[in-house]
Amino acid sequence: MNRISKPYALWTNDVEDHSIWYNALRYETGELVLKEGMPILLDIYKRFNIQSTFYFTGYMAEHFPDVVRMIVKDGHEVASHGYSHEVDQAFDVLPFIKQVEHLKKSKQLLEDVSGQEVISFRAPALRVNSDTPKALAETGYRIDSSIASQRFDMFLSFGGIKKLRWLTAPRLPYFTKPDNLFRKGNGPILEVPLTALLFPYVGTTMRVFPWITGVQRRLLNVENKFNHKPVVFDIHPNEFLNEGNGERTIERRTKNPISYLLADVLRGKLKVKNLGKAAIPLYEKEIRFYQDKGYQFTTVKKYCIENGWLPDITPEG
After folding, report:
1. What is the pLDDT of residue 298?
2. N or C end: fewer C-beta atoms under 10 angstroms in the chain?
């Protein structure tokens, strides 16, 4: 394990055209992310002087390239969230060759728009399989952040059974096996796990159960004193949107009745709490906690370079 002398807060963002209110992918939501959600998020980071990592779907880069360009000037990292966030295009159901196609397409789109080399990846819905690390290595990625170690709400999301492996995944960054992102090995892909303590440490938990997030942040700060684990938080610019003016219908994305009840209906009803501007003070409270504790906010890529994980890579900025 690399010796890390200071605490790190890695604030990460998944950028897609998914509407939380309608529980569906919508072009209109992509437009709102560009015009409203992303400006709100970037304003928060500018006021707190934070550099962050943004995982964009290739679809967003292709249809709303300005949403990618607007983060570059502030020193944020451009990273890949695959090409599509469609349920039937998830990485745990795509074969190797299709994963390679999606990763290449996303990487090319993002690099052409941003002018940055893209080496970081996070799978849509955190869904991966044994082909994913091989596909990442094949297409020039170096860092993955799709594993949420010790997260236990997987039954409320698609691919839940496969995500049981989160429970035994290492908590600290590690190089993975060539065919298994959930285990340490001698493969070329560095895993930087998303933070979880049974519940995921993400914007959704922050909005729906702010008291749980309050407990998490205090426990995570104690943990960091012992093992120097970076705190990896995840949020979406669409969480700062309120699309609730129209009638709400929850789109069914699966034929499985149990998955529909848990991942669509129940999760869909919970996730709308504190959407829009109500999320801003909650998010600022999280940031202030770690700033007051002396944490360094940086991108995932810079964290990996600064701590000797990827000594052959030079960070932008």
Report:
1. 97
2. N
